[in-house]
């Protein structure tokens, strides 16, 4: 029954611990999922930002291309206008200069021609006046002078004719040059017309290019407007996604905070469980120390009983010797009174021992309630102080078999380990209350050492449920002790009856024997009371 109860309680505590572990594992999984969602949201935001940057880059490229094309069209238009103005200006200036030069030459030729005509008229007039009758008279009068004048006029006329011929040649040359200039002017006009046609064709081509550029500009503008609309829509979508992501992030932050609070609460409960476990381990150490003190006290009590039996035998010997001498009888009677006083003292000590047993019983009940709160998860944990105390006690008691048996049961030796140290497999029942305690199941002791539970004050319901188990265990131990004491008392009474018929020792010897009785129960009672306090 006890083992089933302890197993059921340990299994319930193990199930609770498994539930807590599952809760903590679920919390960790949810935290990891939230972190993954946050990372995915961050990646989406980063991708949206990259898309936005790419759209901005494309728009900037399109704008730069459009600006470059607009600048090229302006430059082409400026070049075209410059070329037209330059060609027209050069042709007009050339024509004007040629016309001015020709007009100037024509005027010079006209002046020369008028001069020559005037000189010719003058020469004609002079010759006509010379051939008149007055002239003939004069010629006849002055024949030599006339011959001279004729010769001079003839020479001058030849010179004039030569000069006229020269002037005619120059005039003809001027006319030819004028014709050449007119032809050149016609050619220039034709060239100018051809240039104008070429320029008009170029203008048509340029206008066609400008129209194409305008069309491409309009297409680019429409594309830019479409891209801007798409960008605005993408930005609106991005804002919506950002708001939804912010909302999700806030939700996830709230969930993370709740999970962190739950995790902190779990950690606090774990710390409280650890503190309770340490308290239970210290209580277990005190419990084993009390058990050791009780064992020591029981050994002293058995020694005292043996000494009392010896004293009773010696008293019987003293009664037999009283018959032989009255003086010795008086002395023996005084010593008997002294022995009675000692017996009264022993009775008082026995009553004190019973009170101490009651205290130990209460302490044992508390320890058993603590034992019942322990779990079964840590069967192989033993307090270092208990092991040290067991080893010290084992060597102090000259390799006591009981201490070795206690170490075997506490440390859970296997059958092979028991055979190595020379212990055979023993039954569950032992001698004394300590053997009864050592008869506890190994899992219950393991639960004391490794399991976690609350203190008696913090768990009154569990203490009340386990009170019956502690009472049953203490009653079992006390009944076992009472049966052994009753058997030992019966054996002692039988021995006393057998020794009443034998010889009695001398009073001096009994006195000396009485003086050697070790009265250490007060020391043990002091130790026990100190452990209980």
TrEMBL record:
Residues 157-198, 256-363 form a coiled coil. It is found in: Golgi apparatus. One of its GO terms (molecular function) is small GTPase binding. Residues 1-37, 119-148, 484-533 are annotated as: Disordered. Residues 15-24, 484-501 have a biased composition (Basic and acidic residues). One of its GO terms (cellular component) is Golgi apparatus. Residues 502-523 have a biased composition (Polar residues). One of its GO terms (biological process) is endoplasmic reticulum to Golgi vesicle-mediated transport. The keyword Coiled coil applies. Keywords: Coiled coil, Golgi apparatus. PANTHER family: MYOSIN HEAVY CHAIN - RELATED (PTHR18921), THYROID RECEPTOR-INTERACTING PROTEIN 11 (PTHR18921:SF2). This is GRIP domain-containing protein. The lineage of its organism: Eukaryota, Viridiplantae, Streptophyta, Embryophyta, Tracheophyta.
């Amino acid at each position: 029954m006890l083992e089933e109860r302890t197993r059921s309680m340990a299994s319930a505590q193990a199930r609770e611990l498994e539930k807590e572990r599952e809760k903590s594992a679920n919390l960790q999984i949810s935290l990891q999922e939230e972190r993954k969602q946050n990372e995915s949201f961050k990646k989406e935001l980063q991708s949206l930002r990259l898309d936005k940057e790419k759209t901005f880059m494309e728009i900037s490229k399109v704008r730069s291309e459009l600006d470059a094309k607009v600048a090229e069209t302006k430059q082409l238009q400026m070049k075209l206008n410059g070329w037209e103005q330059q060609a027209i200006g050069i042709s007009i200036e050339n024509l004007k200069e040629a016309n001015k030069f020709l007009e100037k030459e024509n005027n010079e030729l006209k002046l020369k021609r008028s001069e020559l005509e005037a000189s010719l008229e003058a020469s004609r007039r002079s010759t006509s006046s010379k051939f008149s009758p007055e002239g003939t008279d004069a010629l006849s009068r002055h024949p030599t002078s006339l011959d001279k004048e004729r010769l001079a006029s003839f020479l001058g006329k030849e010179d004039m004719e030569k000069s006229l011929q020269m002037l005619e040649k120059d005039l003809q040359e001027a006319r030819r040059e004028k014709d050449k200039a007119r032809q050149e002017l016609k050619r220039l006009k034709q060239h100018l017309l051809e240039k104008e046609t070429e320029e008009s064709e170029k203008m048509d081509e340029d206008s066609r290019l400008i129209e194409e550029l305008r069309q491409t500009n309009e297409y680019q503008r429409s594309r830019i407007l479409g891209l801007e609309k798409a960008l605005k829509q993408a930005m609106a979508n991005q804002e919506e996604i950002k708001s939804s992501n912010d909302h999700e992030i806030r939700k996830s932050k709230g969930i993370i905070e709740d999970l962190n609070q739950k995790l902190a609460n779990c950690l606090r409960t774990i710390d409280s469980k650890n503190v309770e476990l340490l308290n239970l381990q210290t209580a277990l150490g005190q419990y084993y120390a009390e058990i050791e003190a009780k064992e020591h006290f029981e050994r002293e009590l058995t020694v005292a009983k043996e000494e009392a039996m010896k004293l009773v035998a010696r008293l019987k010997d003293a009664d037999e010797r009283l018959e032989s001498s009255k003086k010795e009888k008086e002395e023996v009677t005084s010593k008997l009174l002294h022995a009675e006083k000692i017996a009264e003292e022993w009775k008082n000590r026995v009553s004190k021992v019973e009170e101490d047993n009651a205290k130990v019983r209460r302490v044992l009940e508390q320890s058993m309630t603590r034992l019942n709160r322990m779990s079964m998860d840590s069967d192989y944990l033993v307090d270092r102080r208990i092991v040290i105390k067991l080893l010290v006690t084992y060597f102090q008691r000259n390799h006591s078999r009981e201490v070795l048996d206690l170490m075997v049961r506490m440390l859970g030796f296997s059958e092979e380990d028991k055979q190595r140290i020379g212990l055979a497999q023993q039954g569950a029942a032992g001698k004394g209350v300590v053997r009864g305690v050592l008869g506890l199941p190994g899992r219950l002791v393991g639960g004391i050492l490794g399991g976690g539970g609350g203190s008696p004050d913090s768990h009154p319901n569990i203490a009340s449920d386990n009170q019956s188990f502690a009472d049953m265990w203490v009653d079992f131990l006390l009944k076992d002790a009472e049966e052994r004491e009753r058997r030992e008392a019966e054996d002692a009474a039988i021995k006393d009856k057998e020794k009443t018929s034998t010889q009695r020792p001398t009073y001096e010897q009994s006195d000396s024997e009485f003086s050697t009785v070790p009265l250490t129960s007060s020391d043990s009672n002091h130790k026990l009371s100190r452990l209980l306090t």
